[in-house]
Every structure is written in C-alpha cells, then in structure tokens.
Design brief:
The chain is an alpha+beta fold and 190 residues long. 31% of the residues lie in helices and 32% in strands. The protein is built from five helices and ten strands. It has helices spanning 2-13, 89-92, 102-115, 132-152, 175-181; strands spanning 16-19, 23-28, 33-38, 42-47, 53-58, 64-67, 81-88, 119-125, 157-162, 183-189. A four-stranded mixed sheet has the order 7-10-8-9. Strands 1-2-3 form a three-stranded antiparallel sheet, covered by helices on one side. Strands 4-5-6 form a three-stranded antiparallel sheet, with no helix packed on it. Helix 3 (102-115) crosses helix 4. The protein is elongated. It starts with a helix and ends with a strand. Residues 1-28 have low confidence and may be disordered.
Length: 190
C-alpha cells in the first residue's frame, strides 16, 4: 500500500516522493524546493453504504482512498449487507433516554457476541412526538450506546447514525405505529 500511495502522490504532484512514514518529503521539479510534511499516516479500511471496501490512508492533511478490487477480475470487493437485527427501543431504553437498561445491554451483548459479522452499521430512529432537533440528538445517542456495546464485545462498528423521525417505517398516526418507528436497526456486513 505504501508503494501505491507513493506512486499516487508522485503522480498527483508531478514529484518524486523521497520518504514516507513519520515524515514525507516531496521535491517539485517545477519549484525546485522540498516540502516536508510531518505526522502519522493512519491506514485502514472504510466500508461504503453499499458494503464495498476501500483502502484509506490519512495523515491529517489530505486523505487518500482507493477501492479494494479483486486482482483476478478487477471487480470491487464488497461484503454482503444484511439487516440482521431490529430492536424496538422500548425494550432497550427508558422513554426519552439514551441509557441502556440492564436487560437491553445483556440482549445486545449476546447478539453481538454471536452475530459473527465482519462489521456492523447501527441506525437509530424515533417517532415524531418531539421536535426534530430533540429526535436527532436522541437517535444519535441511542445509536452510539448500541455501538458502544458492540465495541465492548470486540465487534467492529463501521458507522453509527441517528436519523430521528426522518425514516419512519409506518405513519406516526397511532401508538402502535409510533412504537414501530422507535427502533435501532443493525446491519451486518458479512
């Protein structure tokens, strides 16, 4: 990956990359000067919403990303994306709270301990009873609470997002429908 990144940087800047790692020095033939960028490059994997993997490197100045492809056919390497769990938030949290109940935490620990996915995406949702701002904050906090449980058992969380009331599965016109909208969706990347 480092050689690929050196090649890409050299191509982008029309320069020769002299060193990489804690310090990157680039010499520009046009300007005849050397610019030194210091810092730590953080390589990793990023999973897009379609489940495709991307190699990433970010040194804090400008990131670099390249799609991971199968060398045999050049096709992107993507994971199967399956909704593997939907939990009604009434069973995980008290009304208006983002703190998990002890039974909700135990349920999630068991789920993440056995689901066996490569990574998870966690989406929080609310009904429409409160303001949009309040619902966005609550759903984001609830998604984070569920993600923290996943991490506590060693699961990788690719993303955690709160959608508030913006993605209902039913109209918010009855108590039963509002209960369906108060949920945390867990998507498994396999």
């Amino acid at each position: 990956m480092i050689n690929t990144l050196k090649h890409k940087l050299a191509g982008m800047f029309g320069a020769a990359v002299l060193a990489f790692g804690m310090c990157l020095a680039v010499t520009s033939p046009a300007a005849a000067q050397t610019v030194t960028i210091t810092g730590t490059v953080q390589p990793g994997l990023w999973i897009d919403p379609d489940g495709c993997l991307h190699w990433v490197a970010d040194g804090g100045i400008e990131g670099y990303m390249e799609g991971r492809v199968n060398p045999e056919n050049g096709m992107p390497v993507c994971l199967d994306v399956n909704p593997c769990g939907v939990a009604n938030t009434d069973t995980l949290f008290h009304t208006g709270s983002a703190q998990l109940t002890s039974s909700g935490r135990a349920h999630l620990q068991g789920f993440f301990g056995q689901a066996g996915a490569f990574a998870y995406a966690i989406y929080g949702h609310t009904d429409s009873r409160a303001s949009d701002e309040y619902n966005m904050r609550l759903s984001t906090q609830r998604a984070a609470a569920v993600a923290n449980v996943a991490r506590s058992v060693g699961a990788r969380v690719a993303r955690e997002i709160g959608y508030g009331e913006r993605r209902p599965v039913a109209p918010n016109d009855s108590a039963a429908n509002m209960q369906r909208n108060r949920r945390v969706e867990i998507v498994c990347y396999r």
